[in-house]
Amino acid sequence: MNLSHRLFHVFFRNLVSYKRFVVTTFIASLIQPLFYLITFGIGMGAYMGEFGGRSYLFFLVPGVIITSVMMSATFECLYGTFVKMIHERLYDSLIATPVSAEDAIAGDIAWASFRGLISGGLMMAVAAAMGIFPVSVLSFVLLVLVMAFIGILFASLAMIVTSYAPNFDFFNYYTELVVTPMLFFSGVFFPLDNFPGWMKTLAQFMPLTHAVAIARAVYSGVYPRRVLFNVAVGLVLGLAAFVVGVRRMKKRLVK
Amino acid sequence: MKTIIRAEGLTKKYGDFTAVDGISFEIREGESFGFLGPNGAGKTTTVRMIHCVSPVTSGILTVNGLPADIRNRALKAMTGVIPQEITLDIDLTVRENLLVFSRFFDIPRREAKSRIDELLKFVELEAKRDSKIDQLSTGMKRRLLIARALLNRPLFIVADEPTTGLDPQARHLIWQRLRQLKAQGATLILTTQYMEEAQQLCDRLVIMHGGKILKEGTPNGLIEAEIGREVVEIRTPVERDAALIADLGATACGHERVGDTLYFYCRDGHALRRRLFELDLPNTVHRPATLEDVFLKLTGRSLIE
After folding, report:
1. B91 contacts in A (CB within 8 Å)?
2. Which of A82, A253, B4, B145 has its CA 20 to 30 A from that of A162?
3. Total count of domains within chain B
4. Is B295 among the domain residues?
């Protein structure tokens, strides 16, 4: 893996271009999770009892934060990367400089993770406005780290998809068949405890399940023993997805 | 003169398809070297291997004494690339394009700023520095690509069909800039399918076809050796060929029939013209030989698809 500090130059390139899209992306990444917070949190929350001595919103918020990280990072590495690769041919000129293909892809993954952090950060701010905070400063700092890592995980997974994509339509398979189901079966909106056994097992194969479990533990400061397993799965999956994503994309860029 | 690029038996395969088929050549410092050929001849593949973005399948290719390798960042740092496609960053302004690119080469910020100002002046884009890319004409975009290729003060410049799709004014402006660079001592590696471009810019060139090098030489040397100095074209039915060749053949150094035209190639056309005048044929053209004649003679006048 031919990686160097130049991945930050690619990050910098994305940052320079981002200033033109910043407002639109703020709005776009805010709307959907905001709806979840309002409809599920306030609407449905009114019918819910307390969750472990706290309000339903407190249960929901970390899930929604991680979901918005996942969405932003995923879309950045699906559509964003595809446009740069096919339509703008940006990587062609990048890899003719000392920036390697690996730097370029890793830079984009880092960027997507940063985009996820922004989206998740916005959600945190909205939740704060509703009176929902992480339990401590430490828990806030840890949450930011978790968000950054989960951003890398989903960005890398999206890179693998992009490396196979012949066109935009291809992404629908991933978003409709993988991302959307994950949203409902990963314990974002309700605990997995009451699902039948096979669904619980299925949920263990969804990266979002582990991401949400880690985020919720960090947010509430309550660490069940199981969270170690979630962290282990997250780390292994994140590392594997990163390596495979970068390798696959390099194969597509270098001919 | 020092040899900058050396290839021996250089080969590139994509699966079963051989794009470049065991070619050998040398490019020396300060010269302007052209790869001339029709679409699919292997020109672009060859220069992509030279500037280390495409791995070599087999054979030897050294750049500045080092083996060409896509992982060699030092080699990429000394190369300037003017790509065939317009690969500017459309999300950024003219100046931001150069600024971001200078970061890729780790050029210190202050140094980058002064180089950017200097280069924008060189390609006459100072007035457009804050424009977005889609506000530029194709000619301006091509000029910006030249400026971008020069940011890292390259040891040699690879220009892959730098004037494709340009109008005559824009093309001549690009040629002037490239000749100016050449006059300043830059080593220029050019691919083109335009004979005029090759004649305008190249000290030496190779004619490629089907992944192989057919001929190598200077533009005028190749014309002299392959065609002569002059060409006489006669539009005439094929039935008259035998009679005309018997009549004119002795005064020419070669002839060829393509479609509706019989071509005579000569070193000195006086005798042939005199005879032609006596024959009083309609539809004849007498003109100096060009690289295009060499090219068409070597690669065949039929359509390449």
Report:
1. 17, 20, 88
2. B145
3. 2
4. no
Claim to verify: residue B233 and residue B212 sit in the same structural domain? no
Instruction: Name the residue facing A20 among B54, B71, B91 (closest C-beta).
Output: B91
Tokens 């020069």 belong to residue: B150
Say which CATH number the domain at B268 has.
Answer: 3.30.70
A contacts of B89 (beta carbons < 8 Å) = 13, 17, 88, 90
Q: Is A101 helix (H, G, I), strand (E, B) or coil?
A: helix
> Count of A–B CB contacts within 8 Å?
73
Choose between A106 and B276: higher pLDDT: A106
| Inter-chain residue contact B103 with A12, CB threshold 8 Å | yes
**Residue of A5, A16, A100 to mutate, interface with B, max B Cβ within 10 Å:** A16
Distant-in-sequence, close-in-space partners of B4: CB < 8 Å, separation ≥ 6: B27, B28, B29, B63, B64, B155, B156, B187
B304 has a pLDDT exceeding 70: no
In a domain, B87, yes or no: yes
Q: Which residue segment(s) compose the domain that B255 sits in?
A: 228-288
Query: Closest by alpha carbon to A10, among A149, A105, A148, A118?
Result: A105
For residues B88 and B64, membership in a common domain is answered with: yes
Looking at the fold, whether B187 and B249 belong to one and the same domain comes out as no
Amino acid identity, position A85: M
- Among A13, A87, A100, pick the best mutation site for testing chain B contact (most B Cβ within 10 A): A13
- Other C-beta atoms closer than 10 Å to the C-beta of B296 total 18
Task: Please give the distance of CA B201 from its chain centroid, rounded to a whole number.
Answer: 8
**CB-CB contact of B105 with B152 (8 Å):** yes
What are the structural domain ranges in chain A? 7-253
Answer whether residue B305 shows pLDDT above 50: no
B53 shares its domain with B179: yes
**CB-based contact A33:A127 (threshold 8 Å):** no
Interface residues of A toward B, Cβ cutoff 8 Å, are 2, 4, 6, 9, 12-13, 16-17, 20, 88-90, 92-100, 254-255
- How is residue B232 written in tokens? 């006489």
Give the model's pLDDT for residue A103: 96
Same domain, B200 and B238: no
pLDDT tens for residues A165-184? 999 999 999 999 999 999 88
Q: Does B195 touch chain A (CB under 8 A)?
A: no
| A93: chain B residues, CB-CB within 8 Å | 81, 83, 87-88, 101, 148
Asked whether the beta carbons of residue A98 and residue B83 sit closer than 8 angstroms, the reply is no
Closest residue to B71, CB basis, from A2, A9, A92: A2
B302 assigned to some structural domain:
no
Q: What residue ranges in chain B does DSSP mark as E strands?
A: 3-14, 17-28, 32-36, 58-63, 66-67, 79-82, 156-160, 187-192, 204-209, 212-217, 230-235, 254-258, 261-266, 284-288
Q: How far is the CA of B205 from the CAs of B188, B191, B202, B289, in angstroms?
A: 11, 9, 6, 17
Instruction: Tally Cβ neighbours within 10 Å of residue A70.
Output: 30
